[in-house]
């Protein structure tokens, strides 16, 4: 084989290698998708979304799924929770939502023969979407929950007979309204940092607000 033929053959090999590398790079780019590996989008349409992987049934435990928070830019996923929709006589429905492209709210509603749906409240769990860490829940509310809100700062406000505000960091929570206040109409301003509600005071309903840094 002449030198010219060897050079041409070498160029063909190099072109083939470059093309193969381009295909691999393209596949790597596709692999950054949050749905890679057969996962399905559950909620969210911004920089942070929630995806799920359906799991096989295990005896009386059916309709299982594992949920992840995923950064859409990098494709990085962190596990949030494994949810069982049906276990024995208990049926549960989990709903996930994303706040401020950072915080993940999980609401679990359960029904069953031993659960009084007229008085029971859903379980609310707030997690950090970057780490999957469990930050706070509403279990400190002994009375029926009348509402909850998550602010852009990651604070969780829970209204029952009183109003409690939890910071993203660990802590007992700040009491914004005392027991007996009958907190209602909980809302957050468009800026995501001002909490508003009404409470009963001296027999009348009063408007209140609280800014959160």
Q: What secondary-structure arrangement, pairings included, does this model have?
A:
Blueprint (H helix, E strand, L loop, with lengths): L2 H28 L9 E4 L4 E8 L5 E11 L5 E11 L2 E10 L3 E9 L11 E6 L5 E4 L9 E4 L5 E4 L3 E4 L7 E4 L6 E5 L5 E8 L2 E8 L2
Antiparallel strand pairs: 1-2, 2-3, 3-4, 4-5, 5-6, 6-7, 7-8, 9-10, 10-11, 11-12, 13-14, 14-15
The residue fraction in helices comes out at: 10-25%
**N-to-C span:** 76 Å
Order of helices and strands: HEEEEEEEEEEEEEEE
Mean pLDDT, as a whole number? 84
| % residues in beta strands | over 45%
| Largest pleated sheet | 8 strands, antiparallel
Calculate Rg over CA atoms. 25 Å
Class inferred from helices and paired strands: mainly beta
Q: Based on CA inertia axes, which overall geometry fits?
A: flat
User: How many helical stretches?
Assistant: 1
The domain count comes to: 2
Which stretches are poorly predicted, pLDDT < 50 over at least 5 residues?
3-29
Output the strand order for the largest sheet.
1-2-3-4-5-6-7-8
């Amino acid at each position: 084989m002449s030198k010219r033929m060897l050079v041409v053959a070498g160029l063909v090999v190099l072109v083939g290698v470059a093309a193969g590398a381009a295909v691999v790079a393209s596949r790597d780019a596709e692999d950054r998708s949050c749905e890679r590996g057969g996962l399905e989008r559950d909620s969210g349409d911004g920089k942070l979304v929630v995806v799920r992987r359906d799991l096989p049934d295990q005896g009386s435990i059916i309709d299982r799924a594992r949920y992840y928070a995923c950064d859409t830019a990098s494709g990085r996923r962190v596990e949030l929770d494994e949810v069982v929709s049906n276990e024995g006589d208990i049926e549960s429905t989990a709903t996930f939502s994303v706040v401020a492209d950072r915080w993940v709210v999980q609401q679990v509603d359960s029904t069953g023969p031993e659960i009084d749906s007229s008085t029971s409240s859903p379980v609310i769990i707030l997690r950090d979407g970057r780490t999957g860490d469990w930050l706070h829940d509403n279990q400190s509310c002994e009375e029926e929950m009348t509402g909850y809100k998550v602010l852009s700062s990651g604070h969780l406000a829970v209204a029952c007979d009183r109003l409690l505000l939890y910071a993203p960091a660990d802590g007992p929570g700040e009491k914004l309204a005392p027991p007996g206040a009958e907190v209602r109409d909980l809302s957050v301003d468009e800026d995501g940092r001002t909490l508003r509600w009404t409470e009963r005071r001296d027999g009348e309903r009063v408007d209140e607000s609280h800014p959160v840094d």
